[in-house]
Write a structure and sequence with these properties.
The structure holds two protein chains of two kinds. By secondary structure, chain A is of the alpha/beta class. Helix content of chain A is 42%, strand content 16%. The N terminus of chain A is likely disordered. Helix content of chain B is 72%, strand content 3%. A two-stranded antiparallel ribbon of chain B has the order 1-2. Classes of the chains: A alpha/beta, B mainly alpha.
Amino acid sequence: MALRARFLLLTGLVATAPALAAGPPVKVGVLQSLTGTMAISEVTVKNAELLAIAEINAKGGVLGRQIEAVVEDGASDPATFAQKAGKLIQQGGVVTVFGGWTSASRKAMLPVFQRNTSLLWYPVQFEGNECSPNIIYTGAQPNQQIVPALSWATAKGYKKYFLIGSDYVFPRTANLILKKRIAAGKMAVAGEDYVPLGGTDFSAVIAKVRAAKPDIIFSTLNGDSNVAFFKQMAAAGLTSAKLPVMSFSIAEQEAQAMGPALVNGSYAVWNYFQSLPSPENKAFVAAYKKKYGAKAAITDPMVHGYVDVYLWKAAVEKAGSFDPGKVRKAAVTLAAIPSPMGPVKLAPNQSLIQRAYVGQLQPDGQFKIVSQSPGLINPEPYDPLAFPGKTCKPA
Amino acid sequence: MDPALLLGQIFNGVSVGSLYLLAALGLALSFGLMRVINMAHGEMLMLGGYLAYLTLQVVPGPLGIIAALPVAFIGAALFGAFLHTALISRLAARPLDTLLATWGVSLILQQGARSLFGAIGVEVTAPAWLDGAVAVGGASLPYARLFILGVAALVLAALALLLARTRIGLLVRAVNQDRMMAAATGIDVRRIDLIVFSLGTGIAGLAGVVLALLGPVTPTVGQSYIVPAFLVVVMGGLGSITGTVAAALILGLVVALSQLAVDVSLSQVILLLFVILFIQVRPEGVVASRSRSLDA
């Protein structure tokens, strides 16, 4: 797989690269799960990252050099991610790596990038509470997804919240922040429940939801559990019209796979929706579909992966060097660059300054944008209410 | 405590118990008769789920799920017959090897499903007549769960009739009581093994169909029910059908009632602790099997 991707890119390079390339191609790592349970989500992020690399190569590359992507498979296993990251940096000779999805994979790779003083571009929304100089976090921090969701719900007049999540670090941390914020807003937590990752029995949860009579459910369920949850909610007569659900892990692709009828009317908050009307987004969607098929659904993490490559390119050009330390310092001082999600730039804490959108799922599997944050939101890795006193020291 | 919530959880406990029962019956049958632990039993559930999905592609509409039940039963039973003939009967004298070999089959089937249908799983949409719930004393009993209870009761009744009233049942009981003596009287023991094993995998196939009403059908759908199924078999008193029924209901209620106090994650821990304590106090299980094959 890796070899084939490399071969394709090299042949593409011969066909499209003008003769002005100064020096040999520069290697970058693309490390996502191509097999295992996470493959369904991560393969598309890999596709988006490769699309950005191909586009940049077609326009002459970076600092006059073509980019060669070295694709590795993290195999949905944190230990494999760490091992492949080490391999890419030490043997593959890559100058930076784009990749990771689960928090477990990121936490496993973090020491590898610190030891090798290299740089990882991480594209997925996460629970914050971490700040490494060797990682650029472009996915939403809690205050760019979870907190805007709560602000939207508060503005809608919802007062009683039921929190339900899969039992791992992201839902537990997200709900910790939500509980603090709900209490601070003088509202009520009607209930909180966790289901093992992949769990499919929601009979008790639904009974508790019925008894607690919340105004809205905030769901940090992940993967297969979502389908079971929405099915059993529907079977119990609790449709989105009667009891709205706000999900943090359902994007266009998941909705398509679950069947939009099942999740129709439920809400999600992301920094990007495929339905965003900007010309940059239309061009990106068209380019992606041209390369990977007209039925492809495009999601927030894919766009973050795509934007990561362009941010890296801009930072390299500003630094005039591929050295990870110099690129990192240049990245946080970049001016905003255009992207499918609007103009984006990095904050000094190496996270992305971005807008949050609230979308409501339509029968065609796309989200209708019902609200957006008033302006761009500065990333806060540590929620001031949940983790008082902790800050991210800019390195 | 809110009486409606308590009543609802008792119903949920019975409902979860009926799922455990459908998942565990096949295991109990094949273990009781052959002392074979089939690690690929969970994948028979998965097979049933995917067969339900395929049936609904051919027979859409309200009766699709009814049509899926026999299709999944026969499909899973045929696969069970193949598995038994090709693998398990050849390893009859080596129980540990059966364990490893069926585990391998389980991995192959999971990866096969992943390659054929994709990792994210497929959807079996419940027909409209299973949507909604009936309200009893403030608790809400979803039709889908009542349907599953009905299927479990029918399967149990049919199995009891088969074992008690038919010639096949008589032969099964004979082999169960004393394999060598049964063989000496001219009963084809291998054939009985094959029938019972296929019957067990067929029931697992049915379990797969009803599970598809509650959740997605994924390559790993069987894995989340195989551990409770093993617990039910162990606690029921190895190989006893009455014990299996009692154990499934007890464990279902333990899970559901403990969720009144703790979250779903923690209730799984309580389930395991309960079984460990129960086995300490009563190692022979709910119903002690008095079959002579255990005396050896």
